[in-house]
C-alpha cells in the first residue's frame, strides 16, 4: 500500500502535524536514562533533523568475552575469546493521573523497513502487561504513529492498576527504527484519527485571497471560482439541480456558478420563486399600495413598523408611544398595579404612564421617595429634614439618615451636633463649645450685626486714618522691613465676652 512522504503545495513539502488527545501523557524516548542513546545519524529527509531520536538497533551491541579455564592442578589453560550479543532494554518512565484503561501510541520513523515486531512490557506499580509494537514502513518526513497491542486484551487497550508507569522496548537486529515519543491516552479520549496526520488547512489562505470584506466571493478570479466549485460539489456530494420555478423564471437553465435562474420582472430568489420587496401576488407580482411600499407578499396588506397602525401607518397602537415612521413605536409597559384605573396607555411623546398617588417611575412600577411597599406605597414616616434624597428603603421603610442625624425617623441630631435642618447637607451643625462640652442646643438669642471702625489701627504703621465706618491706610511699606508681618489691632469694644441677653 502506498505511503505518504509529505503534502506538497506548489511543488514544495509543507509541514504536517498530528493531533494531540486531551489528557495524553507524553514521554520522550531520549529522556533519562536514555540520553546516551540519542542517535547521531537521524533518518534521511526528515523535516526536523535536530529532534532527539533513539535508534532501537543501538540498544544491541556485539561484545567480545574472554574466558580462561583453570585445570585441576590450578594451571590456566589457553584462553578463549568469543563474540556475544549485549542487549540493553530501552526503558521509559512516566506517570498517569489515575488508574484506568489507556492506549499507548508510539511516534516513530522507519523509512527503510517494511515492518517490524517489537516485544514491549508495561509495568504499572510493578504489575506487568506484555504486548507487541508492530510499526510499518514510514517514509513520512514528520514520522508515523502506531499503537501497542497487548496480549491480555488482544487489542490496544490496557488496564493500568497504578499511576507510576515503566515501559520496556526490547531491541531487534532485523531492521532500523527511530523512536521519538510515546503517548499514554485515556481510552475515552482515544480515536484512530490520532494515528494520521491532520489535513493541511488552506482555508485561511483561500479566505484571504478569494473573500472580500463583505464575505462575498471575489468575481473574475478563476482559482477562487474553481475552489468554491470544488468545495460546494464535495460538500453536496455532486452538482445540484437548478429547480427553476416554472412560473417565475424565463427558462429552466441556471448559472453554472451559483445556480441563479433567469427571473421574470419583479421576481427574485435563486429559483425565481418570490416577489421582490414592494411587490405581492406571485407570480404576477404587483406593486404594494402602501405609504412605505411594504406589504404582505401574498395579500398585499400593508406592513407597518412595530406597534404602528392606521391605513397610512401614521399612529401608534394603543399602549404604545414614540411614533417614528421608520422604526415604529415602543410599548408603554405600564404596571397595571401602579396606574390609575388600570389604564395601560401612556403619554404619546414621553411614554409616562398615569400613576396612582405616591407611585412613580415612567412605568408607574415603583414608590416615590418617602414611600414604601409597592403598589400600596405607604408613608415611611421619616423626618425629611434629616434624610438623604432617597428618604427611605422602598421595601423595608427604613429611613436613610444624613451623616449627623440619628433615630428611626431621622429626627435627632447625634451627640456633638445641633440644629436639625433640611438645608444642611449633614443634617445638623457641629457644636463648638471651646472644649468645655460636646453637647449643645440651638440658642434662643437673636443675632445682630454691629459695625464700628473707631479705634482700629495697624501694629507697625501709624499712617492710619480712622472714620466712623472706614479705615484708610497710607504707605504701608514706609518704615516696615521686607518680610515683617503687619497685624490689625482691635479696640476694646471688640474684645472680651460679647454674648448678652437683649
What does this structure look like?
Strands 3, 4, 7, 8, 9, 10, 11, 12, 13, 14 and 15 form an eleven-stranded antiparallel sheet that branches. The chain is 4% helix and 31% strand. Among the domains are: 16-63 and 83-195, Galactose-binding domain-like (Jelly Rolls, Sandwich); 202-236, no CATH class; 387-430, Tie2 ligand-binding domain superfamily (Tie2 ligand-binding domain fold, Beta Complex). The protein is flat and about 145 Å long. The chain has 502 residues and is mainly beta. InterPro entries: Laminin/Netrin_ECM, LE_dom. This is Laminin EGF-like domain-containing protein. Disulfide bonds join 242-254, 244-261, 263-272, 304-313, 355-364, 380-392, 382-399, 401-410. It is found in: Secreted, Extracellular space, Extracellular matrix, Basement membrane.
What is the highest CATH level, the class of the domain at 16-63 and 83-195? Answer: Mainly Beta
CATH superfamily of the domain at 16-63 and 83-195: Galactose-binding domain-like
Oligomer: single chain
User: Ranges with pLDDT <50 over ≥5 residues?
Assistant: none
> Which band does the percent of strand residues land in?
25-35%
- Tell how many strands the DSSP assignment holds: 39
CATH topology of the domain at 16-63 and 83-195: Jelly Rolls
Question: How does the overall form come out from the CA principal axes?
Answer: flat
**CATH architecture of the domain at 16-63 and 83-195, please?**
Sandwich
Provide the gyration radius in Å: 49 Å
Largest sheet: 11 strands, antiparallel
Kindly report how far apart the N and C termini lie: 122 Å
Number of helix segments? 2
State the secondary-structure class: mainly beta
The overall pLDDT, averaged over residues, is 87
Amino acid at each position: 500500500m502506498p505511503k505518504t512522504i509529505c503534502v506538497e503545495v506548489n511543488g514544495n513539502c509543507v509541514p504536517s502535524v498530528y493531533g494531540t488527545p486531551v489528557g495524553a501523557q507524553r514521554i520522550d524516548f531520549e529522556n533519562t536514562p536514555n540520553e546516551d542513546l540519542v542517535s547521531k545519524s537521524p533518518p534521511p529527509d526528515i523535516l526536523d533533523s535536530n529532534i532527539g531520536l533513539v535508534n532501537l538497533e543501538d540498544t544491541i551491541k556485539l561484545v567480545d568475552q574472554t574466558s580462561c579455564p583453570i585445570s585441576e592442578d590450578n594451571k590456566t589453560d589457553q584462553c578463549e575469546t568469543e563474540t556475544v550479543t549485549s542487549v540493553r532494554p530501552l526503558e521509559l518512565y512516566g506517570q498517569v493521573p489515575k488508574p484506568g484503561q489507556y492506549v499507548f501510541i508510539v511516534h516513530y520513523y522507519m523509512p527503510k523497513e517494511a515492518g517490524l515486531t517489537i516485544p514491549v512490557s508495561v509495568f504499572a506499580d510493578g504489575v506487568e502487561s506484555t504486548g507487541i509494537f508492530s510499526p510499518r514502513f514510514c517514509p513520512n518526513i514528520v514520522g508515523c504513529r502506531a499503537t501497542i497491542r497487548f496480549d491480555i486484551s488482544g487489542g490496544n487497550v490496557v488496564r493500568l492498576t497504578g499511576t507510576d508507569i515503566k515501559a520496556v522496548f526490547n531491541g531487534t537486529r532485523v531492521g532500523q527504527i527511530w523512536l521519538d515519543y510515546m503517548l499514554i491516552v485515556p481510552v475515552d479520549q482515544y480515536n484512530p484519527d490520532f494515528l494520521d496526520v491532520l489535513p493541511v488547512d488552506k482555508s485561511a489562505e483561500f479566505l484571504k485571497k478569494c473573500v472580500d470584506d463583505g464575505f462575498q466571493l471575489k468575481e473574475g478570479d478563476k482559482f477562487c471560482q474553481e475552489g468554491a466549485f470544488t468545495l460546494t460539489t464535495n460538500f453536496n456530494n455532486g452538482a445540484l439541480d437548478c429547480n427553476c420555478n416554472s412560473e417565475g423564471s424565463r427558462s429552466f437553465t441556471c448559472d453554472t456558478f451559483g445556480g441563479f435562474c433567469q427571473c421574470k420582472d419583479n421576481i427574485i430568489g435563486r429559483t425565481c420563486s418570490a416577489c421582490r420587496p414592494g411587490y405581492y401576488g406571485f407570480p404576477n407580482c404587483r406593486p404594494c399600495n402602501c405609504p412605505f411600499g411594504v406589504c404582505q407578499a401574498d395579500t398585499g396588506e400593508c406592513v407597518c413598523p412595530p406597534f404602528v397602525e392606521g391605513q397610512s401607518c401614521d399612529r401608534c397602537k394603543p399602549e404604545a408611544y414614540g411614533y417614528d415612521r421608520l422604526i415604529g413605536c415602543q410599548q408603554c409597559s405600564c404596571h397595571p398595579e401602579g396606574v390609575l384605573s388600570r389604564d395601560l396607555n401612556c403619554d404619546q411623546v414621553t411614554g409616562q404612564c398615569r400613576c396612582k398617588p405616591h407611585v412613580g417611575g415612567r412605568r408607574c412600577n415603583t414608590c416615590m421617595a418617602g414611600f414604601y411597599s409597592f403598589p400600596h406605597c405607604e408613608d415611611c414616616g421619616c423626618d425629611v429634614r434629616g434624610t438623604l434624597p432617597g428618604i427611605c428603603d422602598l421595601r423595608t421603610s427604613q429611613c436613610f439618615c444624613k451623616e449627623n442625624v440619628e433615630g428611626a425617623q431621622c429626627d435627632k441630631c447625634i451627640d456633638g451636633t445641633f440644629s436639625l435642618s433640611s438645608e444642611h447637607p449633614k443634617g445638623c451643625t457641629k457644636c463648638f463649645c471651646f472644649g468645655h462640652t460636646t453637647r449643645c442646643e440651638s440658642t434662643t438669642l437673636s443675632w445682630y450685626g454691629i459695625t464700628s471702625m473707631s479705634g482700629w489701627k495697624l501694629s507697625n504703621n501709624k499712617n492710619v486714618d480712622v472714620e466712623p465706618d472706614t479705615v484708610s491706610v497710607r504707605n504701608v511699606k514706609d518704615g516696615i522691613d521686607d518680610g515683617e508681618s503687619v497685624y490689625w489691632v482691635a479696640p476694646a469694644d471688640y474684645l472680651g465676652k460679647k454674648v448678652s441677653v437683649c
